[in-house]
Each structure stands twice: as C-alpha cells, then as structure tokens.
Design goal:
1 helix, transmembrane, transmembrane helix, plasmid, 0% strand, mainly alpha, membrane
Length: 37
Amino acid sequence: MHVMSELLTFGAIYAGVGVIAYYALKFIDYIRTLKDN
C-alpha cells in the first residue's frame, strides 16, 4: 500500500507539471502571435 501512495503522489506531481508546461507553451504561443501582428 505504501508503494501505491507513492505512485499516486508521483502521478499527481507529474500531471501538475504537465498541465503547467502545457499552459506555459500556450501562453508563449499567444505572445508570439501578438508580436507577429
């Protein structure tokens, strides 16, 4: 059971980092489109 909780914690951290990275890339893309116009 201890291993399961560790996996869940790792999964939550991984998902959080993935979401943050996704929105960061979207934000950078948005700024690039603003600079192009």
